[in-house]
Amino acid sequence: MSDEEKEDLWTERDRTLPRQEGDRPEDDPEEFFKAGMFLLKRNKVKEAHAAFKQALFLREQEPRYMSYTGLTLAMAMGKTKEAVLLCEKAVQKEFFRSELFLNLGKVYLLAGNRKKAHIAFRKGMTLDRDNRTLRGELERMGIRKPPVFKFLDRRHPVNKLTGKMLHRLRLR
User: Fold this and answer.
1) Residues 136 and 153 in one domain
2) Engineering a disulfide at 52: which of 36, 84, 85, 138 sits with its beta carbon 3.0 to 4.6 angstroms away?
3) pLDDT tens across the length of the chain (172 residues)
């Protein structure tokens, strides 16, 4: 990102924190975080990742910065293992923030782990029942019915075939 683009970013987006004389945006991790949120909402994931990464560099132990850096790492670069580690660490530090569970769930989905994603979304819902984004993610995932034969694994061919057949016959 060139200096001109950075300056445009600071002037374009809405600033909510008052500035002191002499403050520079590149010294304040919260400014980078806000820039990252601004970019993420506009689907500029790689640029958002750079902003979140800079915020995390300036304040390494901030769980929100870890979580959003992890989310954008998975979205932009597909590095889901590192992203899961960052998001899990963030959730361990601040287990009372539903948005961290939302990000963790999204990263699990990107990693292909629907079960852990569902658990993360459900934990987030216990913290904030009114969170529309969490509710939307759970609805998008859908509710899975229990396997027909509970003593067999869900992925067992007999369970899959029987479940599909019962679904087509509208018996399930």
Assistant:
1) no
2) 36
3) 555 554 444 444 444 344 444 455 567 899 999 999 999 999 999 999 999 999 999 999 999 999 999 999 999 999 999 999 999 999 999 999 999 999 999 999 999 999 999 999 999 999 999 999 999 999 998 877 889 999 999 899 999 999 999 988 888 7
Domains identified in the chain, total number: 2
- Residues 100, 156, single domain; the answer is no
Domain of residue 45 covers: 3-141
10 lies in the same domain as 25: yes
Residues 95 and 121 in one domain: yes
- 151 with 130, same domain: the answer is no
